[in-house]
Design goal:
CATH class of the largest domain: Mainly Beta
Largest sheet: 10 strands, mixed
CATH topology of the largest domain: Jelly Rolls
Structural class: mainly beta
Number of domains: 2
């Protein structure tokens, strides 16, 4: 999320472990990925590669190891992975024909032999490959899909001097209230992220994320969103690299698809930005100004077209991006490093209260207030 600020702390989400027998190594021979085997150590079992169906033939790939301390490295181009390859952090979407290869490393074990699996996927450009439609067939408000969404929680200011306490579904840790959740799928088939003021100077809200549960790299992602427009509010739809758990922010990269603060302006706007090492302030961002008579308070589709070496943003019309960022966009910035081709990223939806960018809520700011999301969809480029 934009603003002059320091980033948050992140906690790594462990991969699901399954029990599989281990294989003894032969001392002195070369291991996979150029790592020499050490005599008398046990060789790690290769990781398990599983896939579940997404939409229209796309697959979500999960990698697991029975070793709790294991690190899994993988490639998608058929090459043998090494410890310089992508670190597996979460299930990832694949939408084209690839060969996934993966190895396991762990202290006290020799590096595993590689596991591999071929995927044959041929999809036309613009094919819908994943979505959360926020459907709810019940007569009461429902939990957002726990297989996709988890939550950041707490009130540490998030590096931006924010004022809200972020609450998870089902939390009764004060000031959270499980009977009045800050994030829920309503009977209207819409995701609601609600900011509340349970007492003077106390605010609650929600920050939903797919970290550790779902991620993707490249494609067109969009969400149909209605944002609040009041002093001190900061709604956002954005992404962080999976590797934020290991390399931290801003090296992980951040892609801000929807951001705006405070009351409506004339013209009203949405801000699309990218951040990484060497470009963490307001220097790589562009405002989209809504046409006369429109505001962000109406329903709009906010999207990103992510390709190798390119991040582009649009509002309502994917054929007319209003901003496109490439490595050339940061070439003049000292120490800037383009991070968006280093692996998958995860999704985030939140509504912040206060902070360095919007300032504090004013006398006219009304609670409860919300960001509403009709759907979130991913298409092939």
């Amino acid at each position: 999320m934009m603003g002059d600020r320091v980033r948050r702390k992140w906690v790594r989400v462990a991969a699901t472990m399954v029990a599989v027998p281990l294989m003894l190594s032969c001392g002195g021979s070369a291991g996979s990925g150029g790592t020499a085997k050490t005599p008398h150590l046990v060789q790690a079992q290769p990781p398990t590669i599983t896939a579940t169906a997404a939409l229209n033939g796309a697959q979500v790939v999960t990698l697991t190891s029975p070793i709790p301390s294991a690190t899994i490295y993988y490639t998608e181009d058929g090459s043998t992975p090494t410890t310089a390859s992508i670190v597996y952090e979460a299930p990832f979407l694949i939408t084209s024909s690839v060969t996934v290869k993966a190895i396991v490393t762990a202290s006290g074990f020799n590096t595993s032999l590689p596991a591999n699996q071929n995927f044959t996927i041929n999809l036309a450009s613009g094919t819908l490959v994943w979505s959360d439609e926020f459907s709810n067939s019940m007569s009461v408000n429902a939990q957002p899909d726990p297989l996709t969404w988890t939550y950041d929680t707490g009130s540490n200011g998030w590096g931006n001097n924010e004022l809200e306490n972020y609450c998870a579904w089902g939390s009764n840790a004060a000031p959270c209230n499980a009977s009045a959740p800050n994030a829920y799928v309503g009977t209207d088939g819409t995701l609601h992220i609600v900011a509340e003021q349970p007492s003077a100077g106390v605010y609650t809200s929600a920050r939903m994320k797919s970290q550790g549960l779902f991620s993707f790299q490249y494609g067109r992602v969009e969400a149909r969103i209605e944002v609040p427009e009041q002093q001190g509010l900061w709604p956002a739809f954005w992404m962080l690299g999976n590797n934020v758990a290991t390399v931290n922010w801003p090296a992980s990269g951040e892609m801000d698809i929807t951001e705006r603060v405070d009351a409506a302006t004339n013209p009203d706007y949405n801000k699309g930005s990218v951040h990484g090492t060497g470009f963490t302030g307001d220097n790589i961002g562009t405002n989209y100004n809504f046409p006369a008579g429109e505001t962000a308070a109406g329903w709009h589709t906010y999207g990103m077209i992510w390709k190798p070496g390119s991040v582009a943003y649009y509002v309502d019309d994917p054929t007319h991006p209003y901003a496109t960022f490439t490595p050339a966009s940061i070439s003049s910035l000292s120490g800037a490093v383009w991070p968006f081709d280093s692996g998958p990223s995860f999704l985030i939806l939140n509504l912040a209260v206060g902070g360095n960018w919007p300032g504090v809520p004013g006398a006219t700011t009304m609670f409860p207030t919300q960001i509403a999301v009709d759907y979130l969809r991913i298409y092939t480029n």
